[in-house]
Amino acid sequence: MASVIQAVNERENEAAKQPWLKEEGPRSLGIILGALIYAVGVNLFLRPLHLYSGGFMGFAQLITTLMRDYGGLDLGKVDLSGIIYYALNIPGLVIAYLSMRRRFFFKTIFTVTCMTLILTLIPIPDAPMLEEKLANCLVAGIMGGVGVGLILRMGACDGGMDLVGMILIQRKGHFSVGRINIAANLVLYGVCLILFDVPVVIYSLIYSVISSLMCDRVHIQNINVQALIVTKMEVVEPLEIELMGRMHRGITRWGGYGGYTGHEETILMVVISKYEIAQLKSIVRRIDPKAFILIDEGVQIEGNFLKKLT
Fold first, then answer.
1. Structural domains for the chain
2. What span, in angstroms and rounded, lies between the C-alpha atoms of 154 and 309?
3. Which residue from 262, 263, 259, 265 is spatially nearest to 228, judged by alpha carbons?
4. CA triplet 306, 307, 308: central angle to 5 degrees?
5. Could you please report the per-residue DSSP string of 131-176?
6. Among 207, 46, 208, which Cα is nearest to 127's?
7. Is the pLDDT of residue 171 over 70?
8. Model's pTM, two decimal places?
């Protein structure tokens, strides 16, 4: 047993030394793609309608409006929403740095920077892309939700309420990013309802709900699955070492027999997030291409289970 633990530790150290580009390069491209989809939806379909996006960016827009219209601050052509958005994210980033993996923290900073740059580079047209106001809200909500959901699936976060949601999922588990966004946006649009016209709030709320629902559709990291791996390998330690060392997951093993052949088989059980299914299959197929893998989604887990979001 000591030799297995030592081998697992060595595999973890080896995985940690792998080149960043090989492991995180594709995910970084996914983050940039998600940020681009989000920015196109917001800048081309939502912002021309003079509506408020949800989450921290919506609060940043609201604070900027209050400073200009009610505080008497003449900002000219300077938009402080981005700076205020960064300021609102500081507490969440501090918590993420203290309680979550360093890779997630740095990828979140990378994501926020990418989104800010892309939102700045994409010009906002004077008129919305579509004639119907509702159609613009729907397209913006779909693109915004897909973009943010893709970013979350890449193991990163665009900050704001999504970051708060990821932290709560990590600590509590019984949350979803989309639902947390909806709750926060109800507060935001409640304030907007007092200050602005009703149609502005209604259309902004439509965008928010569609975006949150699409985000949850794409973001599936907090769904737990049970994986059963049936292998005929005589020595299963290499597979166990690879799974534990690469995925940092515990494994339960028991012996069995084929009902028809009567051959001895080994069954490995591991509980992971749905986000890790592709990685598990890749490891198993590389070591034992003939292994049988059974995936059971949506299992309820109590006890000491690490909810990995990156």
1. 20-218 (no CATH), 223-297 (3.30.70.120)
2. 9
3. 265
4. 105
5. S-HHHHHHHHHHHHHHHHHHHHHTT---SHHHHHHHHHHHHT-S--
6. 46
7. no
8. 0.68
